[in-house]
Protein backbone atom coordinates (compact mmCIF):
# COMPACT_ATOMS: atom_id res chain seq x y z
CA UNK A 1 0.00 0.00 0.00
CA UNK A 2 2.96 2.34 -0.58
CA UNK A 3 1.79 5.63 -2.04
CA UNK A 4 3.16 7.05 -5.26
CA UNK A 5 3.98 10.34 -3.56
CA UNK A 6 7.26 11.66 -2.13
CA UNK A 7 7.46 11.54 1.67
CA UNK A 8 9.58 14.66 2.18
CA UNK A 9 6.75 17.26 1.88
CA UNK A 10 4.72 15.27 4.42
CA UNK A 11 7.67 15.33 6.85
CA UNK A 12 7.87 19.15 6.53
CA UNK A 13 4.20 19.35 7.54
CA UNK A 14 5.00 17.05 10.50
CA UNK A 15 7.75 19.44 11.69
CA UNK A 16 5.55 22.55 11.35
CA UNK A 17 2.55 20.97 13.11
CA UNK A 18 4.88 19.61 15.81
CA UNK A 19 6.25 23.09 16.57
CA UNK A 20 2.70 24.47 16.64
CA UNK A 21 1.69 21.73 19.10
CA UNK A 22 4.60 22.47 21.46
CA UNK A 23 3.57 26.15 21.55
CA UNK A 24 -0.12 25.35 22.01
CA UNK A 25 0.32 22.84 24.84
CA UNK A 26 2.70 25.20 26.69
CA UNK A 27 0.38 28.19 26.25
CA UNK A 28 -2.50 26.08 27.56
CA UNK A 29 -0.71 24.74 30.64
CA UNK A 30 1.42 27.76 31.54
CA UNK A 31 -0.79 30.69 30.52
CA UNK A 32 -4.28 29.24 31.06
CA UNK A 33 -3.64 26.53 33.68
CA UNK A 34 -1.12 28.38 35.88
CA UNK A 35 2.13 26.57 35.08
CA UNK A 36 4.00 23.36 35.86
CA UNK A 37 5.38 22.14 39.21
CA UNK A 38 6.80 18.86 40.51
CA UNK A 39 5.86 19.77 44.10
CA UNK A 40 3.15 22.27 44.98
CA UNK A 41 0.23 22.83 47.32
CA UNK A 42 -1.70 23.60 44.13
CA UNK A 43 -1.90 20.01 42.92
CA UNK A 44 -3.21 21.06 39.49
CA UNK A 45 0.29 22.30 38.64
CA UNK A 46 1.57 18.73 39.09
CA UNK A 47 -1.10 17.45 36.72
CA UNK A 48 -0.16 20.06 34.11
CA UNK A 49 3.16 18.29 33.52
CA UNK A 50 1.15 15.31 32.23
CA UNK A 51 -0.27 16.73 28.96
CA UNK A 52 2.95 18.65 28.25
CA UNK A 53 5.21 15.58 28.53
CA UNK A 54 2.80 13.15 26.85
CA UNK A 55 2.32 15.44 23.85
CA UNK A 56 5.97 16.49 23.48
CA UNK A 57 7.19 12.96 24.29
CA UNK A 58 5.04 10.16 22.88
CA UNK A 59 3.27 12.19 20.18
CA UNK A 60 5.76 14.77 18.84
CA UNK A 61 9.17 13.16 19.52
CA UNK A 62 7.60 9.75 18.85
CA UNK A 63 6.25 11.08 15.54
CA UNK A 64 9.61 12.59 14.61
CA UNK A 65 11.24 9.23 15.45
CA UNK A 66 8.86 7.48 13.04
CA UNK A 67 9.37 10.01 10.23
CA UNK A 68 13.15 10.30 10.75
CA UNK A 69 13.79 7.53 8.18
CA UNK A 70 12.01 9.60 5.55
CA UNK A 71 12.95 13.10 6.75
CA UNK A 72 16.74 12.91 7.13
CA UNK A 73 19.35 12.71 4.33
CA UNK A 74 21.66 10.45 6.37
CA UNK A 75 23.07 6.94 6.19
CA UNK A 76 20.80 4.05 7.19
CA UNK A 77 22.75 3.19 10.34
CA UNK A 78 22.70 6.81 11.56
CA UNK A 79 18.96 7.10 10.94
CA UNK A 80 18.38 3.82 12.77
CA UNK A 81 20.24 5.21 15.79
CA UNK A 82 18.25 8.46 15.66
CA UNK A 83 15.02 6.42 15.32
CA UNK A 84 15.69 4.33 18.43
CA UNK A 85 17.13 7.19 20.54
CA UNK A 86 14.16 9.48 19.77
CA UNK A 87 11.75 6.66 20.63
CA UNK A 88 13.65 6.04 23.90
CA UNK A 89 13.31 9.76 24.77
CA UNK A 90 9.61 9.59 23.88
CA UNK A 91 9.13 6.59 26.19
CA UNK A 92 11.08 8.24 29.05
CA UNK A 93 9.04 11.45 28.82
CA UNK A 94 5.87 9.36 28.53
CA UNK A 95 6.64 7.41 31.70
CA UNK A 96 7.42 10.62 33.65
CA UNK A 97 4.22 12.16 32.27
CA UNK A 98 2.14 9.16 33.37
CA UNK A 99 3.82 9.23 36.80
CA UNK A 100 2.71 12.88 37.17
CA UNK A 101 -0.92 11.94 36.49
CA UNK A 102 -0.76 9.27 39.26
CA UNK A 103 1.10 11.72 41.58
CA UNK A 104 -1.63 14.33 41.04
CA UNK A 105 -4.39 11.79 41.67
CA UNK A 106 -2.74 10.34 44.78
CA UNK A 107 -1.97 13.74 46.35
CA UNK A 108 -5.50 14.99 45.54
CA UNK A 109 -7.45 11.89 46.62
CA UNK A 110 -8.68 11.16 43.07
CA UNK A 111 -9.27 7.57 41.96
CA UNK A 112 -6.79 5.98 39.54
CA UNK A 113 -7.39 3.95 36.40
CA UNK A 114 -11.14 4.18 36.09
CA UNK A 115 -11.34 6.07 32.78
CA UNK A 116 -11.01 4.87 29.19
CA UNK A 117 -8.15 7.38 28.77
CA UNK A 118 -6.18 5.73 31.57
CA UNK A 119 -6.95 2.19 30.37
CA UNK A 120 -5.83 2.88 26.81
CA UNK A 121 -2.91 5.00 28.07
CA UNK A 122 -1.48 2.11 30.09
CA UNK A 123 -2.00 -0.15 27.08
CA UNK A 124 -0.18 2.31 24.81
CA UNK A 125 2.91 2.71 27.03
CA UNK A 126 3.20 -1.08 27.50
CA UNK A 127 2.85 -1.76 23.76
CA UNK A 128 5.25 1.12 22.96
CA UNK A 129 7.90 -0.41 25.24
CA UNK A 130 7.39 -3.91 23.77
CA UNK A 131 7.68 -2.45 20.26
CA UNK A 132 10.88 -0.59 21.17
CA UNK A 133 12.48 -3.63 22.81
CA UNK A 134 11.56 -5.91 19.90
CA UNK A 135 12.96 -3.37 17.42
CA UNK A 136 16.16 -2.93 19.44
CA UNK A 137 16.84 -6.67 19.74
CA UNK A 138 15.86 -7.50 16.15
CA UNK A 139 17.31 -4.59 14.19
CA UNK A 140 20.07 -3.15 16.41
CA UNK A 141 21.64 -5.34 19.09
CA UNK A 142 22.31 -8.22 18.92
CA UNK A 143 20.22 -8.14 15.73
CA UNK A 144 18.33 -11.03 14.14
CA UNK A 145 19.32 -12.99 11.06
CA UNK A 146 18.62 -11.48 7.64
CA UNK A 147 15.50 -13.63 7.25
CA UNK A 148 14.19 -12.68 10.70
CA UNK A 149 14.72 -8.98 9.89
CA UNK A 150 13.01 -9.30 6.54
CA UNK A 151 10.09 -11.19 8.02
CA UNK A 152 9.79 -8.81 10.96
CA UNK A 153 10.04 -5.45 9.20
CA UNK A 154 6.49 -5.14 7.78
CA UNK A 155 5.06 -6.19 11.17
CA UNK A 156 7.39 -3.76 13.00
CA UNK A 157 6.17 -0.93 10.75
CA UNK A 158 2.50 -1.94 10.99
CA UNK A 159 2.54 -2.56 14.74
CA UNK A 160 4.41 0.74 15.19
CA UNK A 161 1.76 2.62 13.23
CA UNK A 162 -1.05 0.93 15.19
CA UNK A 163 0.57 1.80 18.55
CA UNK A 164 1.24 5.35 17.38
CA UNK A 165 -2.34 5.87 16.15
CA UNK A 166 -3.53 4.46 19.49
CA UNK A 167 -1.27 7.01 21.25
CA UNK A 168 -2.78 9.85 19.21
CA UNK A 169 -6.28 8.58 19.98
CA UNK A 170 -5.46 8.35 23.69
CA UNK A 171 -4.15 11.94 23.59
CA UNK A 172 -7.45 13.17 22.12
CA UNK A 173 -9.29 11.28 24.89
CA UNK A 174 -7.10 13.11 27.42
CA UNK A 175 -7.85 16.53 25.93
CA UNK A 176 -11.59 15.81 25.94
CA UNK A 177 -11.56 14.37 29.46
CA UNK A 178 -9.64 17.28 31.01
CA UNK A 179 -11.75 19.87 29.17
CA UNK A 180 -14.98 18.14 30.26
CA UNK A 181 -13.79 18.26 33.90
CA UNK A 182 -12.96 21.97 33.52
CA UNK A 183 -16.31 22.72 31.85
CA UNK A 184 -18.13 20.87 34.62
CA UNK A 185 -16.28 23.17 37.05
CA UNK A 186 -17.51 26.27 35.25
CA UNK A 187 -15.17 26.85 32.29
CA UNK A 188 -17.02 28.50 29.39
CA UNK A 189 -17.87 25.95 26.67
CA UNK A 190 -17.14 28.32 23.76
CA UNK A 191 -14.42 30.33 25.56
CA UNK A 192 -10.85 30.88 24.37
CA UNK A 193 -9.35 28.08 26.52
CA UNK A 194 -11.91 25.54 25.28
CA UNK A 195 -11.24 26.56 21.68
CA UNK A 196 -7.47 26.35 22.28
CA UNK A 197 -7.72 22.82 23.72
CA UNK A 198 -10.03 21.56 20.96
CA UNK A 199 -7.80 23.09 18.27
CA UNK A 200 -4.72 21.51 19.89
CA UNK A 201 -6.49 18.14 19.78
CA UNK A 202 -7.49 18.57 16.12
CA UNK A 203 -3.90 19.54 15.21
CA UNK A 204 -2.69 16.47 17.14
CA UNK A 205 -4.90 14.31 14.90
CA UNK A 206 -3.55 16.07 11.77
CA UNK A 207 0.02 15.60 13.04
CA UNK A 208 -0.63 11.87 13.48
CA UNK A 209 -2.19 11.62 10.00
CA UNK A 210 0.85 13.25 8.38
CA UNK A 211 3.22 10.97 10.33
CA UNK A 212 1.35 7.96 8.90
CA UNK A 213 1.31 9.51 5.40
CA UNK A 214 5.09 10.04 5.54
CA UNK A 215 5.63 6.38 6.49
CA UNK A 216 3.46 5.15 3.61
CA UNK A 217 5.07 7.44 1.01
CA UNK A 218 8.27 7.14 -0.98
CA UNK A 219 11.64 8.07 0.53
CA UNK A 220 14.38 9.67 -1.59
CA UNK A 221 15.91 7.44 -4.29
CA UNK A 222 17.93 4.65 -2.68
CA UNK A 223 16.93 6.01 0.70
CA UNK A 224 13.82 4.03 1.56
CA UNK A 225 14.88 2.14 4.65
CA UNK A 226 11.53 0.50 5.22
CA UNK A 227 12.41 -1.90 2.40
CA UNK A 228 16.22 -1.97 2.86
CA UNK A 229 16.83 -3.68 6.17
CA UNK B 1 2.98 -2.38 3.03
CA UNK B 2 0.81 -5.44 2.30
CA UNK B 3 1.24 -8.08 4.95
CA UNK B 4 2.27 -11.64 4.19
CA UNK B 5 -0.73 -12.99 6.10
CA UNK B 6 -4.14 -14.20 4.88
CA UNK B 7 -6.97 -11.73 5.46
CA UNK B 8 -9.74 -14.26 6.06
CA UNK B 9 -8.94 -15.05 9.75
CA UNK B 10 -8.88 -11.31 10.48
CA UNK B 11 -12.32 -10.92 8.89
CA UNK B 12 -13.69 -13.69 11.15
CA UNK B 13 -12.45 -11.74 14.18
CA UNK B 14 -14.16 -8.63 12.75
CA UNK B 15 -17.50 -10.49 12.53
CA UNK B 16 -17.22 -11.88 16.09
CA UNK B 17 -16.22 -8.55 17.64
CA UNK B 18 -18.95 -6.81 15.63
CA UNK B 19 -21.65 -9.13 17.05
CA UNK B 20 -20.23 -8.59 20.55
CA UNK B 21 -20.40 -4.81 20.04
CA UNK B 22 -24.05 -4.90 18.90
CA UNK B 23 -24.97 -6.85 22.05
CA UNK B 24 -22.92 -4.57 24.34
CA UNK B 25 -24.25 -1.27 22.99
CA UNK B 26 -27.85 -2.55 23.18
CA UNK B 27 -27.39 -3.87 26.73
CA UNK B 28 -25.90 -0.53 27.73
CA UNK B 29 -28.62 1.65 26.23
CA UNK B 30 -31.65 -0.57 26.82
CA UNK B 31 -30.82 -2.30 30.13
CA UNK B 32 -28.69 0.38 31.86
CA UNK B 33 -29.92 3.61 30.18
CA UNK B 34 -33.65 2.84 30.01
CA UNK B 35 -34.20 2.24 26.30
CA UNK B 36 -34.56 4.12 23.02
CA UNK B 37 -37.28 6.54 21.92
CA UNK B 38 -37.76 8.97 19.04
CA UNK B 39 -40.21 11.07 21.08
CA UNK B 40 -40.30 11.08 24.89
CA UNK B 41 -40.58 13.36 27.88
CA UNK B 42 -37.47 11.53 29.10
CA UNK B 43 -35.07 13.17 26.67
CA UNK B 44 -32.24 10.77 27.56
CA UNK B 45 -34.09 8.05 25.64
CA UNK B 46 -33.74 10.18 22.48
CA UNK B 47 -30.00 10.51 23.09
CA UNK B 48 -29.66 6.74 23.53
CA UNK B 49 -30.40 6.23 19.83
CA UNK B 50 -27.16 8.11 19.07
CA UNK B 51 -24.52 5.62 20.35
CA UNK B 52 -26.56 2.65 19.09
CA UNK B 53 -26.85 3.95 15.51
CA UNK B 54 -23.32 5.39 15.34
CA UNK B 55 -21.76 2.13 16.52
CA UNK B 56 -23.96 -0.22 14.46
CA UNK B 57 -23.84 2.14 11.45
CA UNK B 58 -20.52 3.87 10.90
CA UNK B 59 -18.35 1.50 12.93
CA UNK B 60 -19.79 -2.03 12.49
CA UNK B 61 -21.57 -1.87 9.12
CA UNK B 62 -18.84 0.54 7.88
CA UNK B 63 -16.20 -1.95 9.03
CA UNK B 64 -18.02 -4.84 7.36
CA UNK B 65 -18.23 -2.76 4.16
CA UNK B 66 -14.45 -2.26 4.25
CA UNK B 67 -13.68 -5.92 4.92
CA UNK B 68 -16.28 -7.24 2.46
CA UNK B 69 -13.69 -7.35 -0.35
CA UNK B 70 -11.59 -9.72 1.74
CA UNK B 71 -14.36 -11.60 3.56
CA UNK B 72 -16.69 -12.70 0.77
CA UNK B 73 -16.06 -15.42 -1.86
CA UNK B 74 -17.96 -13.54 -4.58
CA UNK B 75 -17.25 -11.89 -7.93
CA UNK B 76 -15.56 -8.48 -7.94
CA UNK B 77 -18.63 -6.62 -9.26
CA UNK B 78 -20.90 -8.18 -6.59
CA UNK B 79 -18.45 -7.30 -3.82
CA UNK B 80 -18.18 -3.73 -5.13
CA UNK B 81 -21.98 -3.42 -4.95
CA UNK B 82 -22.02 -4.85 -1.41
CA UNK B 83 -19.17 -2.47 -0.45
CA UNK B 84 -20.99 0.65 -1.62
CA UNK B 85 -24.44 -0.41 -0.36
CA UNK B 86 -23.12 -1.25 3.13
CA UNK B 87 -21.28 2.10 3.25
CA UNK B 88 -24.50 3.88 2.15
CA UNK B 89 -26.39 2.15 4.99
CA UNK B 90 -23.59 3.13 7.40
CA UNK B 91 -23.85 6.78 6.30
CA UNK B 92 -27.66 6.80 6.55
CA UNK B 93 -27.62 5.34 10.08
CA UNK B 94 -24.79 7.75 10.98
CA UNK B 95 -26.78 10.78 9.83
CA UNK B 96 -29.89 9.66 11.76
CA UNK B 97 -27.67 9.01 14.82
CA UNK B 98 -26.15 12.49 14.61
CA UNK B 99 -29.62 14.00 14.17
CA UNK B 100 -30.69 12.29 17.43
CA UNK B 101 -27.79 13.89 19.32
CA UNK B 102 -28.85 17.37 18.08
CA UNK B 103 -32.54 16.55 18.79
CA UNK B 104 -31.65 15.56 22.37
CA UNK B 105 -29.55 18.71 22.86
CA UNK B 106 -32.18 21.02 21.40
CA UNK B 107 -35.08 19.51 23.38
CA UNK B 108 -33.00 19.57 26.60
CA UNK B 109 -31.50 23.06 26.24
CA UNK B 110 -27.94 21.70 25.91
CA UNK B 111 -25.38 23.56 23.76
CA UNK B 112 -24.39 22.05 20.40
CA UNK B 113 -20.99 21.56 18.82
CA UNK B 114 -18.73 22.67 21.65
CA UNK B 115 -16.94 19.38 22.30
CA UNK B 116 -14.05 17.68 20.51
CA UNK B 117 -16.32 14.66 19.96
CA UNK B 118 -18.82 16.80 18.06
CA UNK B 119 -16.13 18.62 16.06
CA UNK B 120 -14.44 15.42 14.93
CA UNK B 121 -17.82 13.72 14.45
CA UNK B 122 -18.98 16.36 11.96
CA UNK B 123 -15.61 16.08 10.23
CA UNK B 124 -15.94 12.29 10.00
CA UNK B 125 -19.44 12.28 8.50
CA UNK B 126 -18.48 14.93 5.93
CA UNK B 127 -15.28 13.09 4.94
CA UNK B 128 -17.17 9.75 4.90
CA UNK B 129 -19.73 11.20 2.44
CA UNK B 130 -17.00 12.72 0.23
CA UNK B 131 -15.17 9.38 0.22
CA UNK B 132 -18.34 7.51 -0.72
CA UNK B 133 -19.26 9.94 -3.51
CA UNK B 134 -15.73 9.88 -4.96
CA UNK B 135 -15.69 6.08 -4.85
CA UNK B 136 -19.14 5.85 -6.46
CA UNK B 137 -18.30 8.22 -9.32
CA UNK B 138 -14.81 6.82 -9.94
CA UNK B 139 -15.33 3.07 -9.51
CA UNK B 140 -19.08 2.51 -10.10
CA UNK B 141 -21.06 5.05 -12.10
CA UNK B 142 -20.18 6.58 -14.51
CA UNK B 143 -16.70 5.24 -13.62
CA UNK B 144 -13.35 6.82 -14.43
CA UNK B 145 -10.91 5.71 -17.11
CA UNK B 146 -8.62 2.78 -16.35
CA UNK B 147 -5.73 5.15 -15.55
CA UNK B 148 -7.87 7.30 -13.24
CA UNK B 149 -9.03 4.16 -11.39
CA UNK B 150 -5.50 2.83 -11.09
CA UNK B 151 -4.18 6.17 -9.84
CA UNK B 152 -7.10 6.67 -7.46
CA UNK B 153 -7.25 3.23 -5.84
CA UNK B 154 -4.35 3.49 -3.35
CA UNK B 155 -5.61 6.93 -2.26
CA UNK B 156 -9.20 5.64 -2.00
CA UNK B 157 -7.99 2.80 0.25
CA UNK B 158 -5.69 5.05 2.33
CA UNK B 159 -8.22 7.87 2.70
CA UNK B 160 -10.88 5.29 3.57
CA UNK B 161 -8.70 3.82 6.30
CA UNK B 162 -7.89 7.28 7.69
CA UNK B 163 -11.59 8.28 7.79
CA UNK B 164 -12.51 4.93 9.35
CA UNK B 165 -9.80 5.19 12.04
CA UNK B 166 -11.02 8.75 12.70
CA UNK B 167 -14.56 7.35 13.09
CA UNK B 168 -13.33 4.75 15.60
CA UNK B 169 -11.42 7.46 17.51
CA UNK B 170 -14.51 9.68 17.54
CA UNK B 171 -16.57 6.77 18.90
CA UNK B 172 -14.12 6.29 21.79
CA UNK B 173 -14.37 10.05 22.51
CA UNK B 174 -18.14 9.65 22.64
CA UNK B 175 -17.98 6.74 25.08
CA UNK B 176 -15.60 8.66 27.35
CA UNK B 177 -17.64 11.89 27.14
CA UNK B 178 -20.97 10.23 27.96
CA UNK B 179 -19.45 8.18 30.81
CA UNK B 180 -17.77 11.27 32.27
CA UNK B 181 -21.12 13.10 32.26
CA UNK B 182 -22.77 10.11 33.98
CA UNK B 183 -19.96 9.84 36.56
CA UNK B 184 -20.23 13.57 37.28
CA UNK B 185 -23.93 12.93 37.94
CA UNK B 186 -23.13 10.20 40.46
CA UNK B 187 -22.52 6.99 38.49
CA UNK B 188 -20.02 4.74 40.29
CA UNK B 189 -16.57 4.97 38.67
CA UNK B 190 -15.78 1.26 39.05
CA UNK B 191 -19.40 0.04 38.77
CA UNK B 192 -20.75 -2.47 36.26
CA UNK B 193 -22.07 0.16 33.82
CA UNK B 194 -18.74 2.02 33.76
CA UNK B 195 -16.88 -1.25 33.15
CA UNK B 196 -19.35 -2.20 30.41
CA UNK B 197 -18.90 1.14 28.60
CA UNK B 198 -15.10 1.08 28.87
CA UNK B 199 -15.00 -2.54 27.66
CA UNK B 200 -17.29 -1.67 24.74
CA UNK B 201 -14.90 1.17 23.82
CA UNK B 202 -11.84 -1.11 24.03
CA UNK B 203 -13.57 -3.73 21.86
CA UNK B 204 -14.46 -0.95 19.39
CA UNK B 205 -10.74 -0.14 19.13
CA UNK B 206 -9.90 -3.83 18.62
CA UNK B 207 -12.65 -4.11 15.97
CA UNK B 208 -11.14 -1.12 14.12
CA UNK B 209 -7.65 -2.62 14.34
CA UNK B 210 -8.81 -5.93 12.84
CA UNK B 211 -10.67 -4.10 10.05
CA UNK B 212 -7.41 -2.33 9.15
CA UNK B 213 -5.44 -5.60 9.43
CA UNK B 214 -7.85 -7.32 7.05
CA UNK B 215 -7.43 -4.52 4.48
CA UNK B 216 -3.63 -4.75 4.65
CA UNK B 217 -3.54 -8.57 4.42
CA UNK B 218 -3.78 -10.90 1.44
CA UNK B 219 -7.12 -11.86 -0.09
CA UNK B 220 -7.75 -15.34 -1.48
CA UNK B 221 -5.79 -16.25 -4.65
CA UNK B 222 -7.02 -14.13 -7.56
CA UNK B 223 -9.42 -12.46 -5.20
CA UNK B 224 -7.53 -9.39 -4.05
CA UNK B 225 -9.63 -6.57 -5.37
CA UNK B 226 -7.56 -3.82 -3.87
CA UNK B 227 -5.04 -4.44 -6.63
CA UNK B 228 -7.47 -5.58 -9.36
CA UNK B 229 -9.54 -2.52 -10.22
TrEMBL record, chains A, B:
InterPro entries: CYB561/CYBRD1-like, Cyt_b561/ferric_Rdtase_TM. This is ascorbate ferrireductase (transmembrane). The keyword Methyltransferase does not apply. It catalyses: Fe(3+)(out) + L-ascorbate(in) = monodehydro-L-ascorbate radical(in) + Fe(2+)(out) + H(+). The lineage of its organism: Eukaryota, Viridiplantae, Streptophyta, Embryophyta, Tracheophyta. Its EC number is 7.2.1.3. Its main location: membrane. GO terms for molecular function: metal ion binding; transmembrane ascorbate ferrireductase activity. The chain crosses the membrane at residues 12-32, 52-72, 84-104, 116-141, 153-175, 195-216. Its cofactor is heme b. It comes from Acacia crassicarpa.
Amino acid sequence: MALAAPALPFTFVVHVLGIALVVLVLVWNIHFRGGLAWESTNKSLIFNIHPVLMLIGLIIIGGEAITSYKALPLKKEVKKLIHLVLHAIAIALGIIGIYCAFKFHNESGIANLYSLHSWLGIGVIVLYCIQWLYGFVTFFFPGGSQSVRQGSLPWHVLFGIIVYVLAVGTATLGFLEKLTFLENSGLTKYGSEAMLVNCTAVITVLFGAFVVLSVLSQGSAGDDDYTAI
